[in-house]
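[Automated response] Your request has been received and processed.

Submitted sequence:
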Amino acid sequence: MSASPVVSISDDAELARAARHGSRAAFGRLYDRYARMVHGILLARVPHGEVDDLVQDVFLAAMRRLSALRDPADV
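Generated structure:
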């Protein structure tokens, strides 16, 4: 079993900055880091059959709103 590296806020801020400037790869890394957490939160709040679609909706909304971030370190 390999331990995942600790994610620092500055790593997320750099990814958010890159995603804000159009990097799909950076946004994909943010998705990879946070999709399971979003999925788990939604599982506790909505019917199981709706979770996958809502995870997608959350990240689509986040992508659309990247340009509205005042400070990418706030992600």
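Summary generated for your ticket: The chain has three helices and no strands. The mean pLDDT is 86.
If you did not submit this request, please reply to this message.
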